[in-house]
TrEMBL record:
This is HNH nuclease domain-containing protein. Residues 157-210 form the HNH nuclease domain. It comes from Thauera phenylacetica B4P.
Length: 259
């Protein structure tokens, strides 16, 4: 990358960051602009040259970089540095980085606790600590979890790619009530964004996925029922991260008990 960045380049990078999830400029000197946000903990160091833009990430979570590498090419074999040729490409990379930083573990839990505290303030003092508060916490958590999965899967079913938001459900692999803590309940890797028919079957342990992402069906489902349930041979997850496998193992054990 070139050593000198002119004022116009700096202004363009700062505005692109502001419009795509990095609203704060921590530094704009030398050959780089350092971008950050109050909504997540990732930082982006952006440089410019005649070939485009370079972006070095300081990710909020280790899970971020592998997810970005699904869609963006790294620079010269360095997994934490990306090179994009145009401003729209830089905007797309920053936007995906910011959204994933908010959806992936750690930040999602912080946002949940903040939202719960605000929701609980609206409950009468007499109702706090009761079933009413428990239901409020669960409702807020499930909303946050759905938002995280919509972000992580790009608003499309993890299997079919259907992008009709109204038909998509946030399916836990390890159910909400059986999770050890909020980190598990809100973990975007603890389940999948599925169309309603697949969600219903996955939720009742009538389907599961193996460690390569292929759909498994219970022997309780007859072969004649599968087409009507929207299931056909070869269905598989669009991708599968290593962080999914722990939760999938738990789900498959319950699935096999029913099979």
């Amino acid at each position: 990358m070139d050593a000198d960045m002119n004022p116009l380049q700096r202004t363009i990078i700062e505005k692109t960051g502001h419009d795509n999830g990095f609203e704060h400029v921590l530094s704009s000197a030398g050959d780089a602009v350092i971008l950050a946000s109050a909504r997540h903990r990732s930082q982006a160091v952006v440089t410019a040259s005649a070939d485009g833009f370079g972006l070095r990430l300081q990710p909020a979570t280790p899970a971020l970089l592998p997810e970005l590498l699904r869609s963006f090419q790294p620079w010269a074999g360095a997994d934490d540095v990306f090179c994009v040729p145009t401003l729209p490409d830089l905007a797309a990379l920053l936007r995906r980085t910011a959204s994933l930083s908010q959806a992936l573990p750690n930040q999602a839990v912080r946002d949940y606790h903040t939202a719960v505290a605000q929701a609980v303030e609206t409950i009468s003092a007499e109702a706090r600590g009761t079933e009413v508060e428990r239901l409020v916490r669960q409702r807020v958590g499930q909303e946050r979890y759905r938002d995280a999965l919509l972000t992580y899967w790009g608003g499309a079913c993890a299997v079919t790619g259907v992008a009709v938001t109204e038909a998509l459900r946030a399916s836990h692999a390890k159910p909400w009530a059986e999770c050890a803590d909020d980190a598990e309940r809100l973990d975007a890797f603890n389940g999948f964004l599925l169309v309603a028919n697949l969600d219903a079957l996955f939720d009742r342990f009538l389907t599961s996925f193996d460690d390569t992402g292929h759909l498994l069906t219970s022997t309780r489902l007859s072969q004649s029922d599968l087409p009507g349930l929207g299931i056909h041979s070869g269905m598989t997850l669009r991708w599968l991260a290593s962080e999914h496998r722990h939760y999938l193992q738990w789900h498959r054990e319950r699935f096999l008990l029913g099979a």
